[in-house]
Specification:
- The protein has 59 residues and is mainly alpha-helical.
- It has a domain at 16-55.
- 39% of the residues lie in helices and 7% in strands.
- The chain has a two-stranded antiparallel ribbon with strand order 1-2.
- The chain is globular and about 35 Å long.
- The N and C termini lie far apart (34 Å).
- The relative contact order is 0.16.
Length: 59
Amino acid sequence: MKQYYLEPASEKVQLEIPVKTLRRLMAGKPLLAEDLHCLNQGSQQRVRRLLMDYMMGKS
């Protein structure tokens, strides 16, 4: 039987991504921050932190 691992809520973000952006991602093209719409404040804060860490070379 296949087992699934559920990540803690702190390790997830809730995003809305337009279909055209999803198609672009599936084609291996880059994701732009402006393509993302966070569905709640916690997700927005997490995405900002991840982007800042990425830009600072911490990821």
